[in-house]
Design goal:
The structure is a single chain. With about 425 residues, the chain is α/β, with parallel strands linked by helices. It folds into 2 domains: about 25-275, TIM Barrel (Alpha-Beta Barrel), CATH 3.20.20; about 280-405, Lyase, Ornithine Decarboxylase, Chain A, domain 1 (Beta Barrel). It has helices at about 10-15, 25-40, 60-65, 75-85, 100-110, 120-130, 165-175, 200-215, 245-260, 275, 310-315, 405; strands at about 20-25, 50, 70-75, 95, 115, 135-140, 145, 150-155, 180-185, 220-225, 265-270, 280-290, 295-300, 320, 330-335, 345-350, 360-365, 385-390, 395-400. The strands form 3 sheets. Strands 1, 12, 13, 14, 15, 16, 17, 18 and 19 form a 9-stranded mixed beta sheet that branches. An 8-stranded parallel β-barrel has the order 2-3-4-5-6-9-10-11, surrounded by 6 helices. The termini are far apart. The structure holds pyridoxal-5'-phosphate. Pyridoxal-5'-phosphate (PLP) binds near residues 52, 54, 273 and 368.
């Protein structure tokens, strides 16, 4: 079930104060999600969540997460620069990128970030750009299909990320020669996983592989990074993942793998994005047009440039009408944006209460990979972002993009002044 913690009074009040469309984020929900995760893993004294900046790169939101004790996981120069400006460095920073330009390695090293190498060839690049650190992380790709007896969760054999098993052995020996003192192991093998199975299964694989690599190289395993991938209940019939139970099952695997051995000080890390902010962000939009042809359409003032997931993946996002959340679903609508593209639809054949023009439509689960994936196709511009503070007030945390922003990169001979 999508998150209905905010009342319609909040959405309506926000839509009176800010022009639609805009994203609304809930401070309390985000803080509670971060806190719940840390509680679930509190059995591991060195546990740390490195929030995946790409999911929600608004520095106001990142500040809330830093305040809750999280670090940041960056995957580009721009994200590293944002982390730097927020004062995040050293052990609070992960850098996980693939096919990255060498200067990004150098910059990440300058900030003291823990570097997650995506490929064995990155060793040489890092040696030349930034240098080899004492602690290194390697991203593992076990190939094949990933899952248990009941379900296939992902297909690592088709994934561009990570190192093959035998490359880990070879590469870690090379890294040892170059001066590495300890290592971490990372993998991201499935996305948006509901239920309590994925993390424990992944943890077991990484704990055991980490132990083997320690035996082979003599280098101590310093941490396991379970990365992202815990899902959120986008659909009404979905059940939220039980994070406490996930933490407990990872702990059982940890004790089974490490017991009282010298490895019992291995840190467990995560890089969740979607799980932390996804359910606590909504795209607030207004019904502008009603059209009846072969189907019944409602046109809203947001479009796929604001939230591309439905158009890109056919993703389901729940939508409710402010003030009508308990009304019976009596109509079947396609909810569309204004792009000149027929896949610009937030919902297709959706049963909903009757919509009137000017109604506020609240599109759920837009708090991660929402605004972050915004673009400007058709000259439609990025929406504003508003934070609902714990005291009930609203704070504009990113203004809407303007035509001036759009024109700002255009210049050159023969052009008018934009
Ligand atoms: C995208 C990403 C994440 C976050 O994934 P979620 O599905 O939002 O949890 C974490 N780590 C890395 C390296 C990523 O690329």
């Amino acid at each position: 079930m999508p998150n209905f913690n905010l009342s319609d009074e909040v959405f309506t009040r926000a839509a009176q104060q800010f022009p639609t469309p805009f994203f609304l984020y809930d401070e309390q929900g985000i803080r509670q999600a971060a806190h719940g995760l840390q509680e679930a893993f509190s059995w591991n004294p060195r546990f740390k969540e490195f929030f995946a900046v790409k999911a929600q790169p608004n520095p106001h939101i990142l500040k809330l997460l830093l305040d809750e004790g999280c670090g940041l996981d960056c995957s580009s120069m721009t994200e590293l620069m944002m982390a730097e400006r927020l004062g995040v460095r050293g052990a609070d920073l992960m850098f996980s990128a693939n096919a990255m330009p060498p200067e990004e390695f150098a910059y990440a090293r300058k900030l003291g970030a823990t570097i997650n190498l995506d490929d064995i060839s990155d060793i040489e690049t890092l040696r030349q750009h930034g240098g080899i650190p004492d602690t290194i992380c390697m991203r593992y790709n076990p190939g094949g299909l990933f899952g248990d007896g009941n379900a296939i969760m992902g297909s690592p054999k088709d994934s561009k990320f990570g190192w093959m098993r035998e490359q880990l052995s070879e590469g870690l020996l090379r890294l040892k020669e170059l001066g590495v003192k300890r290592f971490g192991l990372h993998a991201f093998l499935a996305s948006n996983m509901l239920g309590e199975v994925y993390y424990p299964l992944l943890a077991k694989l990484l704990f055991e592989t980490g132990k083997e690599l320690t035996d082979e190289t003599g280098l101590p395993l310093d941490f396991i990074n379970l990365s992202g991938g815990i899902g959120i209940p986008y659909k009404p019939e979905d059940k939220a993942a039980d994070i406490a139970l996930i933490g407990q099952r990872v702990q059982e695997d940890y004790e089974e793998s490490f017991g009282d051995s010298e490895l019992s000080n291995v840190a467990v890390n995560t890089e969740l994005g979607r799980y932390i902010t996804g359910p606590y962000g909504w795209l607030v939009t207004r019904a502008m047009h009603e059209k009846r042809i072969h189907k019944h359409y409602i046109g809203v003032d947001a479009c796929a440039v604001n939230l591309i997931r439905p158009a890109m993946y056919g993703a389901y996002h729940h939508i409710h009408i402010a003030g009508k959340r308990d009304d019976p679903a009596v109509e079947t609508y396609d909810i569309t944006g204004a792009l000149c593209e027929n896949n610009d639809k937030f919902a297709i054949d959706r049963r909903m209460p009757a919509i009137e023009l000017d109604d506020i439509l609240v599109i759920h689960d837009a708090g991660a990979h929402g605004a972050a994936m915004g673009y400007q196709y058709n000259g439609r511009l990025r929406a504003a972002e508003v934070l609902h503070r714990q005291d009930g007030s609203f704070q504009l945390i990113r203004r809407a993009e303007t035509q001036e922003d759009y024109f700002a990169t255009l210049f050159g001979e023969g052009l008018p002044t934009f």
